[in-house]
């Protein structure tokens, strides 16, 4: 089992013919991802060679779905074109859109998020500004390194790409059912709560690791959800314990005022919901080990 992405997933790449798209398509293919096509209207009808695998390029997401049965798209499109790429994916009703691009304007994200809702949420959006997701040993949609962990029974959801990789490496001997990098922008598609619900319902996930960041109230809302709905053990980490007050920090653009949005406030909310929270990623991994032991 896995959440959102399995070995059966048929993946297309919007922006596959660009430099980033080509580089990461090659990496995804090497890790076993079933990539069935790319999308670029200007290069429709051509193919791209990836070490002997000829991947076709289609003119639209709808055409790619029609020709290949694709159900996942990974979007490597420059930020000024990202909104249109996501809207196209939503219109084609693809099941999962993984938006890797960073620097997407918040109002663009708000528009495509609202559009997905207006269309009945047939397309799950992950990101933007995220590393994507991986089900180790099955499929990898995004930029997460595939060789730093193995299949196992831990579910990981994280705002931070770098900390996603560190936690995967710290617990590599135990392994993961799925790892989901949701991104740290002010507006994102899939949230901590969405991933927590999916891991709670996944019979092959025994423990959940949740990584948050200072700013906003996403972690506090996740804590409320855990208290009411999650029976599996959850271990947490909040990046930013040493961040100075009132200073904008990191890619999340997180600004902390008083006690609102601080790492300490988030830690307290999570601990009140029964979550064990580490002060460092390594301590968080140690807590996970102790629970699984």
TrEMBL record:
Enumerate the Gene Ontology biological process terms. Answer: tricarboxylic acid cycle
Would you say which domain of life the source belongs to?
Bacteria
EC annotation from Swiss-Prot or TrEMBL: 6.2.1.5
Q: Which positions bind substrate?
A: 165
Task: Name any one GO molecular function.
Answer: succinate-CoA ligase (ADP-forming) activity
On whether Ribonucleoprotein is a keyword of this UniProt record, the answer is no
Record's Gene Ontology CC terms?
cytosol; succinate-CoA ligase complex (ADP-forming)
Instruction: State the oligomer form and interacting partners.
Output: Heterotetramer of two alpha and two beta subunits.
- The name this protein carries in UniProt is Succinate--CoA ligase [ADP-forming] subunit alpha
Species name: Streptomyces himalayensis subsp. aureolus
Q: Please name the gene that encodes this protein.
A: sucD
């Amino acid at each position: 089992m896995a959440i959102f992405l399995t070995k059966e997933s048929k993946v297309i790449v919007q922006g596959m013919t660009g430099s980033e798209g080509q580089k990461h398509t090659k990496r995804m293919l090497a890790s076993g991802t079933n990539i069935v096509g790319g999308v670029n209207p200007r290069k429709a009808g051509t193919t791209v060679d990836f070490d002997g695998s000829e991947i076709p390029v289609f003119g639209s997401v709808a055409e790619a779905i029609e020709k290949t049965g694709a159900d996942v798209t990974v979007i490597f499109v420059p930020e000024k074109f990202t909104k249109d790429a996501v809207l196209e994916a939503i219109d084609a009703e693809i099941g999962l859109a993984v938006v890797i691009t960073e620097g997407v304007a918040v109002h663009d994200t708000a528009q495509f998020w609202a559009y997905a809702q207006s269309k009945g949420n047939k397309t799950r959006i992950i990101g933007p500004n995220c590393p994507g997701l991986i089900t180790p040993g099955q499929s990898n949609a995004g930029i997460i390194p595939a060789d730093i962990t193995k299949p196992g029974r831990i579910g990981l959801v994280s705002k931070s790409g770098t900390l996603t990789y560190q936690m995967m490496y710290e617990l590599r001997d135990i392994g993961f059912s799925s790892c989901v990098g949701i991104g740290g922008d002010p507006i994102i598609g899939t949230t901590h709560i969405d991933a927590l619900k999916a891991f709670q319902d996944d019979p092959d996930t025994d423990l959940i690791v949740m990584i948050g960041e200072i700013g906003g109230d996403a972690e506090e809302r996740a804590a409320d959800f855990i208290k009411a709905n999650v029976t599996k053990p959850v271990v947490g980490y909040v990046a930013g314990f040493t961040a100075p007050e009132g200073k904008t920090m990191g890619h999340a653009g997180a600004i902390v005022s008083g006690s609102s949005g601080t790492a300490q406030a988030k830690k307290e909310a999570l601990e009140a919901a029964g979550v064990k929270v580490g002060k460092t990623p390594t301590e968080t991994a140690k807590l996970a080990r102790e629970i699984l032991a």
